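Q: Hi! First time doing this. I have a protein sequence and I read that you can turn it into a structure. Is that right? Here it is:
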Amino acid sequence: MVTPIDPDFMKHRTVVGKGEGGAYDIWGPVDPPTKLGIHGTAVAVDFDLCIADGACIDACPVNVFDWMETPGHPASAKKRAPSGRKTAFSAPLAKAFVRSSASRYTAITGR
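A: Yes, that's right. Below is the predicted 3D structure, encoded as structure tokens:
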């Protein structure tokens, strides 16, 4: 069974970098290529749990993810990273997304 993303990761981890042109935070620890941390601010993806099955793409009603290559990572060679596009999740959309299978490795933080 897959361990789900820590919904309180922002309290337990520190920002160690910025993703895609500074559009979002990267939360450590990070030790590439096998440990990539959590990528995101308003919507976050745990790159160490993500298996690139497309669950977040199917569940997301507002298209906030873009593909990112992650060669050498043991779970998958690509991930869905937050796009950095400014998008607001309404409460019903956020609840539907969190109930989906994507909630194993994604979180809506509200930031």
